[in-house]
User: What shape does this take?
Amino acid sequence: MSMLTIENLTLTARLGGQRVDVLRNVSFSLQRGKVLGLVGESGAGKSMIGRVIAGHIPAGFEVTQGRIVFDDTDLLTLDRKAWRRLLGRRIAFIPQEPLTALNPVMTIGQTFLEHLAHLGVAAGKRRPLMLEQLASVHLPKPDEMVARYPHELSGGQCQRILIAMAFAANPALIVADEPTTALDVVSQANVLRLLAEQRRAHHTAMLLITHDLRLAAHVCDDIAVLYAGEQVEYGPAREVLRGSRHHYTFALDHATPDVHGPQRQLPALGGQMPGVSALGGISGCRFAARCPQQHAACVAEPPELVESTSGHWVRCIAPREVAARAPDAAAPVAGEAGGPEWQAPGGDTAAPPLVELQNATLRYTARRGLLGQRKVHNIAVNELSLKVQPGEFVGIVGESGSGKSSVARLIVGAEALTSGRVLIEGQERISARALRLTREHVQMIFQDPHSALNPRRSVYRLLTQAYESDHVPSRLERHPRQDRARQLLNDVGLPDDALTRFPSQLSGGQKQRVNIGRALCVMPRLVVADEIVSGLDVSVQAQVLNLLLELGRRHGIALVLISHDLSVVRYLCSRVLVMQRGHVVEQGRTEAVFANPQHPYTRLLVASVPPADPSIAWPPALVAA
Assistant: This one.
């Protein structure tokens, strides 16, 4: 019997006097103890379904059709008070950003106890239940953990606390909205393992919202793939991944780089998902404009959701043909590999290095104790040595807190060494010439384009910000600012009319392209990129990765990529350094390190990546946080 059934759900918004279906005819069911994955890019409607289940429908939106049946009750018929009584008790939510979901001015214990009070737990039972729940998610020393604040914990620890709070009332349904997006691969695997443990212990149904199709295929029983508010494919998880019938589902999988197997050039899905305001002008298939197999009939009227095989549904008038393959075959069939075999840029090994770190150490000093009399030294980077050759792409991987970003800041001069040396084109950083070379030849691309781009500046001013510097490089003076701006637009693949736009008028992928273009303005020889694709959809990620490779080939730029995503590093980088707690524990050619890791920590990182083959058991066993 189904715990949750959604039938023909249609959510409509009023925009300028026009009615637009933001969600259209969405249907699925979820049985007790099972997991259903809602998969799609940003704007697909995944989180909106979660909001409708919670009764948090935005102003200007209304459900115009369908039912949401939870435990034999249509939620849409309940009054607000009755609906709220279900939330936190029978229906619990795990949000995407753990650090923003926890109150920063309250300790973990205060937040947890307040939640238990809301659930109606008797005062004398709250603290024992809180400690029991924290222990159940494998948090060390729960009695000490409750006295700490969210900022004193890692993202993975905060997410475990939210899981413990969600299961405290033994709910019948958990809605987990991108619970691992902001986490490194080890924390991601641990959180998903914990969710599986808790779900089995409480026999709870779970709705997992994620943009990662491969991850969903490993942890879900069924998958519903959404595009622009419509359900385009629905069926058993492994069949949806390995035998995808809709072209969008296939594109999502093949835009994801692999950690194992032959390297292949990523096929980037062009264009972007239509926004809410554009949906009203689409009379046919909402995916037609991006579909590689578009037919004339696709734009005439919306296709129906039809059952292609037992339990496997697809919304397409010309579904993909799936060739027969061996039951254990993980790789795509011939002709579907997504491009030719690929090899990351190796650079000019005979030339002098662009940047060299010699026994670089970065140590922070903090004061502890009542009067701050006790000094505590935290080592972010410990005696690291690194050379980056012209044109070489080098990756640095590790968990959060491993020291990756500290290395990036040392290279660009944002942090001063505690000991060791940094050489820029053979010149030690302490010299005036080395400082000038750093400014002119080393640039950084920041992780979050939303916060990195000034919202009050146009794309033209953002791209050519270097022209406003007191020390404009001489090679820039030969290029008029307007000409350089248009050249950068062409380099990063943005349209000419983008120059007059502001960041709020751009998509996430376009903002990241502006971020990249700004770093390229001074024609650097080395770019340091810090987690620049971690928050992007897989299709946009593929576009950005291919753009970086093209820029490297065209301009001979070297790249140092900081990332916790091993598949991205394998795709881009010929050499990799693995960091743990400030130390380099393994380094070498990327293919060799990932194919045959020697250090236990590297083996853990590789094992924490969801395999392309859903028949391989994943996630791995829990490891220490």
